[in-house]
Amino acid sequence: MKSITHSVGSIFQPLFHLIGWIMAELYSFIPNYAVSIALLTLIIMGILTPFTVKSTRSMKAMQKLQPEIKKLQQKYKGPENRQLMNDELMKLYKEEGVNPLGGCLPLLLQAPFLFILYSVIKGLTLTVPIKGVITATPRYIPTSSRMYHDLVHSVGQLNVWGMDLSLKPFSSHGSVLKALPFFVFVVIAVGLQYFQMATMNSRNKRQGQVVPSQQQTMQRILPIVFAYFYLVIPAAVVIYMIISTCIRILTQYVINRSDEEKDDGRAKEVWNGPREIPAAGESEPEKLPVREKNPKPSTFKRPNQANTNKQSKSQPRPAPTPKSQPRSKAKRKRKA
């Protein structure tokens, strides 16, 4: 067992030194161990965020395929049809471009970084007895760095806010009050992970999507597993998990928000039709009447002359207005 651990450690040695050097450089700007771990977490999550986005989209695609998956499960019931059902499922995944293991990608990628950070913290706080005196011998960081000298001066303690981040919740703290912040960190880390999974499941239920039973089981079991894990690792690693979970929650929110805006835009486009947006300073183009390809013959008929004559005869003509004409001279003389 020791030989296996030694061989694995030798493989990760360059990464241990790289993470230690980054932490020492960050500590030289802001001499605070918690801030250095937080900035290191931001760098690591910046590398892992593209994979997190891909994993989130894969999980959403899997949830949309749940009705089709259930149909295949109902169609190919029984152990004798299991191989055929698996073939049909793989064919469905291939057609839709979905990876069924894509949702587990963030957890798989987090595991190596957790191991690396745990090993680096353990190396930074390494102490050895020299002539009966406990002396700190930090590893993985330059001996000329400020972090190295501070760790030697504090005898390997990562003192922040009155607590040693190299300790665990059940380490010897001297009093219950000093151990309380370590348990608070564990509760916060577990609560954030539960909130992340519960938010995703509740959003899918609101949209009418079927939440897989495996995902519901993971929502209940994973926080318990991680709670045990957080109780046996240093508080510095728990801080890393708290910050990384917050970043994943924010990433998940941004992805869901962008997808909802895209869906709303497509719905409006289908309802109103595509609309050309004029450039700056230009007026909107006038809408021209649509010319039909095969216009229908006009239904207007020229009225028949005979019909018009009949219609004119049937209607009485208006009486002519009398015109006052001047009398002639002869008529006036006869009258006189």
Write a brief structural summary.
The chain has helices at 2-29, 33-64, 66-75, 82-96, 105-124, 146-153, 176-206, 213-231, 235-272, 305-314, 329-335; strands spanning 127-130, 133-136, 159-160, 163-164.
Describe this structure in words.
- By secondary structure, the chain is mostly helical.
- The protein has a domain at 2-60 and 102-260.
- Helices cover 65% and strands 4% of the residues.
- The chain has 11 helices and 4 strands; from the N terminus they run H-H-H-H-H-E-E-H-E-E-H-H-H-H-H.
- The strands form 2 sheets. Strands 1-2 form a two-stranded antiparallel ribbon. Strands 3-4 form a two-stranded antiparallel sheet.
Quick one: biggest sheet? Answer: 2 strands, antiparallel
As residue ranges, the low-confidence spans are none
Secondary structure tally: strands? 4
Strand arrangement, major sheet: 1-2
Counted by DSSP, the helix tally is 11
How would you describe the shape?
Answer: extended
Radius of gyration: 41 Å
Provide the residue-averaged pLDDT: 77
Give short descriptive properties of this protein:
336 residues, mainly alpha
Write the layout of secondary structure elements.
Layout: H1 2-29, H2 33-64, H3 66-75, H4 82-96, H5 105-124, E1 127-130, E2 133-136, H6 146-153, E3 159-160, E4 163-164, H7 176-206, H8 213-231, H9 235-272, H10 305-314, H11 329-335
Antiparallel strand pairs: 1-2, 3-4
Helix pairs in contact: 1-2, 1-5, 2-5, 2-9, 3-4, 7-8, 7-9
